[in-house]
Design a protein that fits this description.
By secondary structure, this protein is mainly alpha-helical. It has one domain. Helix content is about 70%, strand content about 0%. It contains 15 helices and no strands. It starts with 7 loop residues before the first helix and ends with a helix.
């Protein structure tokens, strides 16, 4: 079994998921007619993140859960350390941006400073139907959904562990649930689950997270028996992903291809392939959470500034300006990662280590 650090292709895949979401948000600001079908499906990059999350968390914690070594409190603290500091930084950053923009007469969504949504955002429950509307840093709805999955992880782990010797049953059951849930949600609400955010974001993560758990179970069973098999799987699932997105297949079909692609890439790593392990892509994957969380604040700042400097009435950017706009997100993400995300995470983990040491000393006294 490979450790988490050796499934580097999945870290690289996070970069492409983030880029897909960014293109979805940024393309409408490009002064060009029409939007490519692949870009229009960019909201599904969030689903890809959710499936990856289920796979990785099972990879890191499932055995400990099954062997009764899993510590729920430590698990939640580690997950909180992973997401909360940057969430808090971007939350207050958007508040500051909204206040300053209002004073400067810049164009921002009036809903950004929706103060009655602040408690839900602080508690990361805004995607549980507990916020009146999207406010502050809107992409953080998915962090609220992730927090829901973290809190309920023992339920996912219980099923995955009980069915660890029957991975095909787990995978088949998960795909059957997806095939049932997506059309049922559409019929009941008139809305696609894959586009739900504030009202149903917590539900949106459930099938994807479960799919990630199921793919981990298959991978752990050794279903990818050779590097050749994994490579063929990666080729076909990648092609199927692109085809389903470009041709407008139902979103649940594209979500299913995410599972197959993740399984295949993990299989490549399992058999020693270096595909997807190039340092630049792994690094971009490592900073992808920052990319995702700052993409909307940066969009508001840059587009407003460019529109004023270039006197653009419709805020549609010329290609050369748009390229600067999107390219600048990489160094900004790196700065966010190294100045906020990583040091805050390490600090919170040191706090946990200190608490454990104090408890150990007290227990031995």
């Amino acid at each position: 079994m490979q450790d988490a650090a050796n499934i580097r292709p999945l870290t690289s895949l996070r970069f492409f998921a983030a880029l897909w979401v960014v293109l979805f948000h940024y393309w409408p600001k490009l002064d060009v007619a029409g939007t490519p079908a692949l870009v229009e499906k960019g909201y599904l990059g969030v689903e890809l993140f959710f499936v990856l999350s289920g796979f990785i968390l099972c990879h890191v914690y499932l055995t400990a859960f099954g062997e009764e070594r899993f510590r729920y409190g430590s698990f939640l603290w580690n997950r909180l350390a992973r997401v909360y500091p940057l969430h808090l930084a971007t939350l207050f950053g958007m508040i500051a941006l909204g206040v300053v923009a209002g004073l400067a007469g810049l164009s921002v969504d009036a809903g950004i400073l929706r103060w009655d949504a602040l408690p839900a955002n602080l508690l990361m429950v805004q995607a549980w139907g507990l916020a009146p509307e999207a406010a502050f840093n809107h992409p953080s709805w998915s962090i609220s959904a992730e927090w829901f999955a973290y809190l309920t992880f023992p339920a996912f782990a219980f099923v995955a562990w009980r069915l660890r010797s029957r991975p095909w049953l787990l995978a088949g059951g998960t795909l059957a649930a997806i095939a049932t849930l997506y059309p049922a949600f559409q019929a009941l609400t008139g809305q696609s689950l894959t586009q739900a955010t504030i009202a149903w974001g917590a539900l949106r993560i459930v099938p994807c997270f479960a799919l990630g758990c199921a793919m981990h179970s298959l991978w752990r069973s050794g279903v990818m028996r050779s590097v050749r098999m994994a490579a063929i799987g990666a080729l076909f699932s990648g092609a199927a992903l692109l085809a389903s997105a470009i041709l407008g297949a139902p979103d649940m079909v594209t979500v299913a291809t995410f599972g197959a692609l993740i399984l295949s890439l993990a299989g490549l790593a399992q058999h020693g392939s270096t595909f997807g392990t190039q340092g630049v892509f792994v690094y971009l994957g490592e900073i992808s959470y920052s990319t995702y969380m700052i993409c909307v604040p940066w969009k508001i700042i840059f587009v407003n500034a460019a529109a004023r400097v270039l006197n653009l009435a419709d805020e549609n950017l010329p290609l050369w300006v748009w390229l600067i706009f999107i390219t600048a997100l990489v160094p900004l993400s790196a700065a966010s990662y190294h100045l906020i995300e990583k040091p805050a995470r390490e600090r919170m983990k040191l706090m946990a280590d200190s608490w454990r040491s104090r408890r150990a000393v007290a227990a031995g006294a």
